[in-house]
Amino acid sequence: MPRATGPLAGALARRAVLLDGGLSNQLADQGCDLSGGMWTGRVLAEHPGRVLAAHTAYVRAGAEVLITASYQVGHEPDLLERSVRVAGAAARAAAREVWVAASVGPYGALLADGSEYRGRYGLTEAELADFHRPRIGALLAAGPDVLALETVPDVLEARALLRVLAGTGARAWLTYTVAGGRTRAGQPLAEAFALAAAAPEVIAVGVNCCDPEDVLPALEAAASVTAKPLVAYPNDGSVWDAASRSWNAPAATAPWPVEAWRAAGARLVGGCCRIGPDRIAALGPLLA
Q1: Residue 233 DSSP label
Q2: Residue 42: how many CB atoms within 10 A of its CB?
Q3: Which of 8, 193, 201, 254 gives 222 a disulfide partner, CB atoms 3.0 to 4.6 angstroms apart?
Q4: Cα separation of 48 and 212, whole Å?
Q5: Neighbour tally for 35: CB within 10 Å
Q6: Is 151 helix (H, G, I), strand (E, B) or coil?
């Protein structure tokens, strides 16, 4: 089991907690091949020790929560379990309390065509729930501290995920990927965040894998409908090009207004794609 001795929800009630950064960019920096539809899942399958090294780099940078390499893993119970076990090994080796969050990526992530940034897949809520149920079951069986329902582009998929969790006793955070004050599928953020407010399984809600400029308006929208702790882990402002499987980076990056995020209610803060250990190390003192 991970090293954490108490629930993440309890820590968030007391203080801000530092998340890790992007797993894919760290693996790429370690020389790993991320080609193919499984992305970080490919490294997990072929070289789990390199995933352990990536998690360890974030622990050394001060991260208190490690997100597993299961984001783009499909219905493969052994790999899903391995993702939790590898992150748990890095957590146990830490000299402090570290939680393991099992990543539940959106349906679109497995299509590997960028549709996690669009949503509206043409599936019903029931079909999406049927897709997610075995993945979530396998991850929960592996014993993470919490689930990360992350990069959700669409209210419909959020409903499906929460349907699967209902009554399980599991704990999760729910984060949408957003742009221009709406979900990627175009729904109002207050509507999206209100779903989490009503779900007892959700311990925190917010945004990830979005432009840093979109974070504060989203947190304010979330705070208008829920008193739960808020989550923020944006990317560096780059835009994913699915055709070339590459990021289009911004010309310049502004400092993150972390103090304003904290004032809006952010308690769980870190980075997503293209945010590495150095950025996480610099973020830590801002949460103290």
Answers
A1: E
A2: 19
A3: 193
A4: 31
A5: 9
A6: strand
